[in-house]
Prior knowledge:
The complex is a heterotrimer of chains A (556), B (166) and C (123). Chain B is of the alpha/beta class. Helices cover 27% and strands 21% of the residues of chain B. Chain B has a single domain (4-165), classed as TIM Barrel (Alpha-Beta Barrel). In chain B, strand 6, helix 2 (88-99) and strand 7 form a beta-alpha-beta unit. Helices cover 30% and strands 27% of the residues of chain C. Chain C is built from 4 helices and 5 strands.
Amino acid sequence: MGVYQYDLIDADMLRDRAEAFRDQVSRRLSGALTEDQFKPLRLMNGLYLQLHAYMLRVAIPYGSLNSAQLNRLAAISRRFDKGYGHFTTRTNIQFHWIRLKDAPDILDALAEVGLHAIQTSGNCIRNTTTDPYAGAAADEADDPRVWCEAIRQWSTFHPEFTYLPRKFKIAVTASAQDRTAARVHDIGLKLRRDAHGALGFEVMVGGGLGRTPYIGKTIRDHLPAHRLLSYLTAILRVYNRLGRRDNIYKARIKVLVASLGAETFAELVESEWRSLDGEMLDLPDVELARIRGAFAAEAFEPRPLRSEIFEGAKRSDPAFARFARRNVLAHKKPGYAIVNVPLKAPGAPPGDCSADQMEVVADLARRYSMDDVRVTHAQNLVLPHVKLDDLPLVFARLQAEGLATPNLDLVSDIIACPGLDYCALANTRAIPIAQQIAERFADPEMAERVGELKIKISGCINACGHHHVGHIGILGVDKKGEEFYQISLGGSGAEDAALGSILGPALSASRVVEAVDALVDAYLAVRRPAERFLDTYRRLGPDPFKEAVYADADQA
Amino acid sequence: MRTLIRLEKGAFVVGEDLFAMVGPDEPLPAGPVILPLRRFQAEGAAVLDEGRALGVRLEPHERVEDLAYDLPRIAVVALAFPKFRDGRAYSAAVLLRRRLGFQGEVRAVGDVLRDQAFEMVRCGFDGFVPADGSGAQDWAAAAGRYRHVYQAAADARAPAFVERRG
Amino acid sequence: MSSLLHAVTANRLEDGAVVFWSRTGWAEDFPDAELFEASEPAAAVLDAARAQTTDLVDPYVIDVRLEGEHPVPTSYRERVRALGPTIHPELGKQARGGPVVAAIQKAAGAARSSGRLSLIRRK
């Protein structure tokens, strides 16, 4: 109900893939496949070799899960891992202690509930992400999940685009507020209606973070929605043919778009699009209707706008009132609400979720959220369809599990990559920095007073923590074998996308929290009413903040 | 000497490779030859005039569109994989089949491995010179590993959305 | 005083576990690692390791120095590999404890901040 259920064809795909990978693992273990031949196959099934073990990245297509799936993830974490998982900035989940020889059994267990690890790594089209409030937000032009499911199918085992120059990430947003960071994706798609009410996509290409961050360029203002897949084919074909293959640091589509110029790139795409056979590639109306029907079948009850139970609970419990104020958002249906479930308890690794916590959220989803859970790119969870009447009960159970921190988008709602504690690519750790900052601002009153402040931390230049688009971005760098951190300010991953600017010389690990403290103090001293940290930075520029952090010469 | 595997009428068989793959500088042997693109452009007409069967080898950066007018007279287009991860030949094969209507053999040469059989067949390859010692049965198994496909490509398989219509 | 020694490490193919070459074969615990004073014997072990393609992935040589009597990898990354995630002292090889683990946890890098030390010791 209300979410796409895999039919026999979808289920067969997962089983066939799991079986193919089982064969490939066995041939690797026997030596019939070399590591060089096996590695891309392993990556395309989500398996990375990390610092301590293999890491398995399970796909959560467009961030959507049901309770059976979340329960299965909990069971897998217990049976094959160490009882927890980590939700990522691409709304997938990672397990950090996986054995290669168990991977085929894990894929079988995932396939039973319609989950998989298909194309979550490797130089192929990755998970398409979207707004966690899809289907619940009042202002969406259309339900982006419909289009994400279309893209998922089109991109799965796409034979022409399985060996791209580099990874490829697509995000779809449908509301005025962009909760998907679409502008810093290889392709960002913004669902909109034109002046005549016709549904279409603004197509943005060439955004990305990492070593060389870019904001995506719009190459088409309005693509008629039903032409989406043929247009994506044209973009991917141009990229597959022309993207650089000689240098992995210059192989993303953002480099191609920058080197050709957005206009020339757009012309190449349009020319390719005109030449290809749209009828073969675009989904027929009947298939679009089938997918749309799966998402539309919500059995919302008619309810009054106002809930006395909800209002009463707010009056009697200040903690609940704060939670409601921060984490609960208006739903398109009267009497319902969108509930944010942060995985950001101060002191806990951001985005980590224990098996017990997963099972509690799964139970709450089944009972109180129409069996629907979402993952956000800020590494939190969402129960998208909760009746206001049920909120106090839901809150109590979340609170008991440490899942009710009232800090959505606040200073302690930090995005952090796993960093050097887990990741073979990292230069420094990221999680301890996040923990320290969150603990420093653990007082909920203080956090609310500071207001919206998005801190994003990456342990290396690959930017999986999205530090380029943090209001405060923190990038770990290795300086003579010691962990140092470079601070940038003014980034944003929302519809007002911008890349942050480096504030000054990198700081040693022990200086980072006091620097964040100083930045917050500087902001509080000069902010105007209703001005967020980001707004004050945009108004005043870096000087007052530079002064606050580097005023003392021997702090640098 | 590597084996040529052919996909003929849906079955993988070991083929007899009649063509000599000629390098950029070596003298032309007798009989059917596959020439690099530049040599084809310079010497192809002469070879065809002798009544010999002719193939062209394209490196990944070379464009299939440059062969458009000559395709009716070309028996084999060999698309090179310098490394199996270089996926440009997949687009080249699709364009050869779908856009340029090429009816001859599209052959995968270079770092050609059985685990890419599925993608290659779907993109319109029907000749394979494996570098990993794999045989016709390995290729049949790999090419047949998915019962359904989600998207149209350069083969005849109906995508899932067509299957679902019943 | 710390003179530079070497050890050889890799990941085990079947489960990805970090292993170290020891006199009795590939060991899971850094305290058991064989330490080489010269680079040639380490290179010889590395060559043999590279040939073990169905047992190991990505073998390489690491630098080690002595902190008092205990060996400690010089690079911070290798110390994390030898211990486990710093935020979960109950997980990974560090949970086994012992004097070498303690020495690695205490090791000063090219200057470790007190912040980092106390993080490792938490909980």
